[in-house]
């Protein structure tokens, strides 16, 4: 992993349930961590929707390892757009993470 290639900034967010007892809980997203990343791969995957097929943007982010655990329940904010995490792969032994994410349709 080359430091010069970590030229983008991403924010990892986690869903948190909020609300008062006895009411329907609301989901809000809180910032978990903000890190520098490399966007290594970009392509469009076709996904089935209720109205046919659509294209979903898939990005792979390479980031340095961080002690804060990241799960596939989290999401990434990148350049004003949200991406759901689909796969997390550790690079080396605590060298970094490869995060594969799919763009959320607005």
Please tell me about this protein's structure.
It is a single chain. This protein has 106 residues and is mostly beta strands. The chain has a single domain, classed as Protein of unknown function DUF3599 (Thrombin, subunit H, Beta Barrel). A six-stranded antiparallel barrel has the order 1-2-3-6-5-4. A hairpin with a 2-residue loop joins strand 4 and strand 5. It is globular and about 50 Å long. The chain starts with 7 loop residues before the first strand and ends with a strand.
Keyphrases for this structure?
six-stranded antiparallel barrel; mainly beta; Thrombin, subunit H; 6 strands; 106 residues; globular; 67% strand
Q: What is the mean pLDDT?
A: 85
Largest sheet: 6 strands, antiparallel, barrel
CATH topology: Thrombin, subunit H
Low-pLDDT runs: none
The tally of helices reads 0
Shape: globular
Strand numbers in spatial order across the main sheet: 1-2-3-6-5-4
Quaternary: single chain
Span from first to last CA?
32 Å
* CATH homologous superfamily descriptor: Protein of unknown function DUF3599
Give the SSE order as H and E letters. Answer: EEEEEE
Structural class: mainly beta
Gross CATH architecture = Beta Barrel
CATH top level? Mainly Beta
Estimate nothing, just give the exact number of structural domains: 1
Helix share, percent: under 10%
Q: How many strands appear in the DSSP assignment?
A: 6
Compute the gyration radius: what is it? 15 Å
Strand percentage, roughly? over 45%
């Amino acid at each position: 992993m080359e430091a010069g290639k970590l030229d983008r900034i991403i924010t990892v967010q986690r869903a948190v349930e909020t609300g008062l007892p006895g009411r329907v809980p609301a989901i809000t997203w809180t910032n978990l961590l903000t890190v520098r990343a490399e966007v290594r791969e970009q392509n469009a995957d076709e996904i089935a929707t209720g109205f046919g097929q659509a294209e979903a943007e898939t990005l792979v982010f390479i980031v340095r390892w961080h002690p804060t655990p990241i799960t596939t329940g989290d999401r990434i904010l990148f350049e004003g757009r949200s991406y759901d995490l689909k796969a997390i792969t550790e690079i080396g032994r605590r060298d970094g993470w490869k995060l594969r994410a799919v763009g959320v349709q607005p």
